[in-house]
Structure formats: structure tokens, C-alpha cells
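Propose amino acids for all 321 sites.
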């Protein structure tokens, strides 16, 4: 079957139109064909006619695909090619974290947000946007928050509902007055960033928080250059701008500009707020020493690193007008 593709003329972060083309290669060509076949377990010939067109924004340095998958390909990509199956080890860890939300990274992050907002956990109204398997949403629920979730996959929405998460339709996010919206490893996948950000920003209550966590660019430009020269790239280095899937490789400046376009200002939780979990009983256990050490070290890890990029954005505290 043939798939449709869509062109993007603007930077998904700052909205700029001045860009530096980095690559224009066929998805089923000698450089990307083998990568796509291994990663998605499909014959790349089904992508014939599609191009890996990637540019860098000259204003904010965001690297983004100027040609992205259409609706039919996105459906097949996320519901079929990537699927929803998980391994036994992941499932075991998932189940443990859901059963012990106070000891989880996500739980500690939610406690940080509650401390920043000066709210009790049981008073938080949260949304996990693009929730996937729903771990964050279920941890929020386990902490007593009014936990909501959204995902494009109805299978995942149904699974979340079965475990007590209140799922919400995309069109109902606006006006949700959420205290905290989580987008964990989501925005790099979004082809229509402006539309999603408009919806999420309108879903925040005054003073509400939006957390965006995405892969950092790292050495992705080198991997893209390999594709442009006709070489099969290192898939790990290409991952921040992986074909079809990771269509936005943001920078800190880009995410800051994105927030400002929608009236959101960057905020940074203090070290004390990142350690807020220590004020709650049962958040660190010697029964899992490796997990305990990770959580005691995590607050010192910068939100911006070579591997990851996290930014917290806050809606205006007072309603406009």
C-alpha cells in the first residue's frame, strides 16, 4: 500500500521558517532501508515515495522533519509496527512501581510538583498526555491525585480505565483546569506541535504546570550527516530524529520559545522541592537499595544533559483579564 506524507514549513518549536536543510533521503533507500527494517520489522518498500527530510531551525536550533507521516501511516506505526506488547522484565518492574508509587521516580516527581504548587497530593488534578502503558497516570492515582490520561491508542485508553484512571478525549482537555500535565517522551513524536500545545496550555488552570521531557539532540546531527552521505547510520545516535517516529529534536531554547508562544513561562523546582519526597513516609526503602540510591541521587541530576532534556512550564498565575 502507498502512504501519504505531510509537509511542515515551520519550526515546531519557535515557529520560524528560516532553516538549514540537513538531509533529504528516501526512506526505503540504501542508508535508511536497513535501519527501518530492523527497528520496525517491516519491508521498507512499503514506504516507497516517502523521504527523510530533516532541517535545523536557524533561530532556535531545533532539528525537525519537514516531511512527516500522514494519518494512515501514523496509525499503523503506533498501533501495529510498534505495538503495545511489553517484555516480562518491564512488566514486572511496571507492576512493582504501580504497587509502590511512593518509591517511584514518577511519584517523586509528582511530589515535587505538589511542593512547588504548595498543594497536597490528594488535591492535585493531573493529566498524563500520551500516557502509553499508563505508568505515570497510575502512580499519580496511587498517590491519591485525581488522575486523568490521554493516548491516541484506544487499547491503552481502555486499559487505563480498567485500572481506575479517568481517561479524557483530546477535545475535552481544553478547560480541564489541570494542576499538572505530564508529557514524558511525547513531544518528539508529535507532528502537529502547535495544535497540541494550544490544547494543553488551555487545559491548565492558572498557575498550573506543564512538564515536557524529550531526548536531547546529542550526536544526532552526525548520524543525520551519515544518512545524507548514503551511509547506514548508527541507529542509537540517530534516535533523537529517528525516521517516522521522532520528528522533533528540541533544544532548550526551542522549548522555551514554544512555551512563550502559548503564554507559559519556564520555572525550575528548587533542590528542596526536588527532595520533597523525603517529607513523606515510605518513599525510600532499603529493601531495594539500588532504587533508593537512584532516587536519592536523582534530584542532583540536571534537567538538561547530553541525553535528556526536561523543562517545566507554568501558566500565568492570574487569569488574563
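Proposal:
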Amino acid at each position: 500500500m502507498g502512504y501519504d506524507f505531510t509537509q511542515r514549513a515551520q519550526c515546531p518549536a519557535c515557529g520560524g521558517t528560516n532553516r538549514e536543510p540537513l538531509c533529504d533521503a528516501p526512506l526505503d533507500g540504501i542508508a535508511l532501508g536497513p535501519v527501518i527494517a530492523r527497528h520496525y520489522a517491516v519491508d521498507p518498500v512499503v514506504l516507497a515515495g516517502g523521504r527523510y527530510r530533516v532541517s535545523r531551525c536557524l533561530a532556535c536550533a531545533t532539528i525537525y522533519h519537514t516531511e512527516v507521516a500522514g494519518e494512515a501511516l501514523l496509525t499503523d506505526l503506533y498501533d501495529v509496527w510498534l505495538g503495545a506488547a511489553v517484555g516480562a522484565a518491564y512488566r514486572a518492574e511496571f507492576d512493582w512501581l504501580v504497587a509502590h508509587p511512593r518509591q517511584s521516580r514518577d511519584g517523586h516527581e509528582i511530589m515535587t510538583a505538589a511542593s512547588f504548587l504548595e498543594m497536597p497530593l490528594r488535591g492535585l488534578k493531573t493529566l498524563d498526555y500520551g500516557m502509553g502503558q499508563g505508568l505515570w497516570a497510575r502512580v499519580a492515582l496511587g498517590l491519591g491525585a485525581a488522575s486523568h490520561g490521554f493516548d491516541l491508542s484506544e487499547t491503552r485508553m481502555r486499559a487505563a480505565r480498567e485500572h481506575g484512571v479517568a481517561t479524557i478525549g483530546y477535545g475535552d482537555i481544553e478547560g480541564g483546569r489541570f494542576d499538572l500535565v505530564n508529557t514524558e517522551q511525547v513531544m518528539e513524536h508529535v507532528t502537529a506541535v502547535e495544535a497540541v500545545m494550544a490544547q494543553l496550555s488551555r487545559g491548565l488552570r492558572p498557575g498550573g504546570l506543564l512538564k515536557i521531557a524529550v531526548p536531547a539532540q546529542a550526536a544526532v546531527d552526525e548520524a543525520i550527516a551519515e544518512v545524507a552521505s548514503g551511509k547506514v547510520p548508527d541507529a542509537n545516535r540517530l534516535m533523537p530524529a529517528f525516521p517516522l517516529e521522532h520528528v522533533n529534536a528540541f533544544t532548550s531554547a526551542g522549548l522555551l520559545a514554544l512555551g512563550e508562544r502559548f503564554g507559559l513561562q519556564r520555572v525550575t523546582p528548587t533542590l528542596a522541592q526536588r527532595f520533597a519526597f523525603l517529607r513523606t513516609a515510605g518513599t525510600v526503602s532499603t529493601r531495594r537499595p539500588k532504587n533508593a540510591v537512584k532516587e536519592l541521587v536523582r534530584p542532583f541530576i540536571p534537567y538538561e544533559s547530553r541525553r535528556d532534556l526536561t523543562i517545566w512550564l507554568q501558566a500565568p498565575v492570574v487569569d488574563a483579564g
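The longest strand covers residues 204-215. The mean pLDDT is 95.
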